[in-house]
Amino acid sequence: MRKRVYIAYTGGTIGMTRTRAGYAPASGNLQAQMNAIPELKHRSMPLYRIHEYAPLLDSSNMTPREWLEIARDIGDHYDDYDGFVVLHGTDTMAYTSSALPFMLRGLGKPVIVTGSQIPLCEVRSDARENLITSLLIAANYDIPEVCLYFGGRLLRGCRAVKLSADGFAAFASPNVQPLGTVGIDIQINWNVVRKVRPKQKLHVDDLASPIISALRLFPGISPEIVRNVLRPPLQGLVLEAYGVGNGPDHDAAFLRALAEATDRGVVIVDCTQCFEGTVNLNEYAAGTALARAGVISGFDMTAETALAKLYYLFSRGYGNEKLKREMQRDLRGELTATG
Ligand code: ASP
């Protein structure tokens, strides 16, 4: 029996065509391109169905509304397919691949998010390999996770970051080993892949519209800016701080702005600006001061995942304490809690 894969085609470079204004998505184009690829008809390939979203988006236009649309789409077709491929622009791919694992609670089948740096219609394109390999993994490997496949690396979706604007190996997961590497063979690191619980069932958890923001610290940042960002109705903030999560502890007005907000119930999650490593708010005075102001640790979560997780948790109706606890707990393999 040929396996069956559902392709959710949201947009992105992979299916774009040349227009006078530059590359842009065009309805029907991807399907036509794929029909012309003989390898996709080979009997070792799964049967696939493409669901094209309307409108097709450059992923710079994605919002949490579209994350939810993708999650619901997968939920609606879950029982009829062996696996799922989400075709997506690379620009915000790491945000979507970070958000989907939270919404797809109890996922037991592979969901592979992929795209390309050069459209499928071009001769020298990375789209073909990304597409074919993603289809093969979605069909044939029991990986119960949302993954991001790109340029030979299969990554846990909620650990992935875009690291290159123009390279073919454009994504990495700096704090966790890849789930797989693809060369002559497809090699899966089964010791990293999460296990499914027996009788686990998929539930698609909705997203509401909480007010979330992100702020990257920089030398000289004015407390006024911080205060403005934290103003009501803000509910959650990803604070991208220095090194192991440090900030300017000599600036009393800055610390006051943070403390006033956390006292009001704003959840401020500290993530590092570093590419690799984890937040530890106990290491420096410049970190403990933030913790005293009520800031919580994001440990080694990416800023993309911390943001998506805030959207998810604020949509669950939790009280402040429970929400902060869940934020610092590993739910989908997104963080390594170190104490
Ligand atoms: N701007 C495009 C997008 O994110 C880039 C890409 O797909 O590579 O949709």
Verbal overview:
28% of the residues lie in helices and 23% in strands. α3 (93-103) packs parallel to α8 and α5 runs parallel beside α6. The chain folds into 2 domains: 4-204, Rossmann fold (3-Layer(aba) Sandwich); 212-327, 3-Layer(aba) Sandwich (Rossmann fold). It is α/β, with parallel strands linked by helices. It contains 9 helices and 18 strands. The structure holds aspartic acid. Aspartic acid (ASP) binds at residues 11-13, 58-60, 89-91, 115, 117.
Describe the secondary-structure layout.
Elements: E1 4-11, E2 16-19, E3 22-25, H1 29-35, E4 47-57, H2 64-77, E5 83-87, H3 93-103, E6 104-105, E7 111-114, H4 127-140, E8 146-150, E9 153-156, E10 161-162, E11 171-172, E12 180-182, E13 186-188, E14 203-204, E15 212-216, H5 223-230, E16 236-241, H6 252-263, E17 267-272, H7 285-292, E18 296-297, H8 303-314, H9 320-327
Parallel strand pairs: 1-4, 1-5, 5-7, 7-8, 15-16, 16-17, 17-18
Antiparallel strand pairs: 2-3, 6-14, 8-9, 9-12, 10-11, 12-13
Helix pairs in contact: 2-3, 3-8, 5-6
This protein binds aspartic acid.
Aspartic acid binds at residues 11-13, 58-60, 89-91, 115, 117.
Could you write a compact summary of the structure shown?
With 339 residues, the chain is an alpha/beta fold. Helix content is 28%, strand content 23%.
The percent of residues in helical segments reads 25-40%
Under CATH, the homologous superfamily of the largest domain reads L-asparaginase, N-terminal domain
The count of helical stretches stands at 9
Could you give the distance between the termini? 48 Å
Beta content comes to 15-25%
Question: Strand sequence of the main sheet, in spatial order?
Answer: 4-1-5-7-8-9-12-13
The rounded Rg comes to 21 Å
User: What gross morphology would you assign?
Assistant: globular
Helix and strand pattern: EEEHEHEHEEHEEEEEEEEHEHEHEHH
Biggest sheet statistics: 8 strands, mixed
Low-confidence stretches: none
- From the 3D structure, determine the CATH topology of the largest domain: Rossmann fold
Structural class: alpha/beta
Strand element count:
18
CATH-derived architecture of the largest domain: 3-Layer(aba) Sandwich
CATH class of the largest domain, named: Alpha Beta
The domain tally reads 2
User: Which molecules other than protein and nucleic acid are bound?
Assistant: aspartic acid
Average pLDDT score: 97
